[in-house]
Amino acid sequence: MDQVTSLGEALVGHRLAGVTRLAWHQPGEPVELVKSNVGPLHLVFDGGRGFLVDGRSDWTLRCTETAPGDVAWLATYDYDWDGARWLPRVPRRKRHSVL
Q1: Where is 10: in which H helix or E strand?
Q2: SS3 45
Q3: Are 43 and 16 in contact (CB under 8 A)?
């Protein structure tokens, strides 16, 4: 927990610059419809430091710091299982009204 606490403290006050969320995609399923089979979440902050949060099979979360430009974390999710694979989740665009 100390690693997560120190990383969180180091990122306080930094602006979120990007988010990558992976989702499990079945063959033949439109990527836009991938919504419930979500997986790991990678947050990147200004300056490039990142924070990867992924669930483990024992129902715990693993939080890992990533260096600026580091995409090595994606290699863990780069595999095919009977045509299904992890893909970046395509967010739905929401329309916001201004009152």
Answers
A1: helix 2-11
A2: strand
A3: yes
If you search the block for the tokens 């995409």, which residue do you land on?
71
Contact 26, 82 (CB under 8 A): no
For residue 38, name the pLDDT band (cuts at 50, 70, 90): confident
**If DSSP codes are grouped into helix, strand and coil, which group holds residue 74?**
helix
Q: From CA 27, how far away is CA 84, in angstroms rounded?
A: 5
Distance from chain centroid for Cα 37: 13
Beta carbons within 8 Å of 58's beta carbon, 6+ residues apart: none
pTM reported for the whole predicted model: 0.74
- 83, two tokens: 């045509």
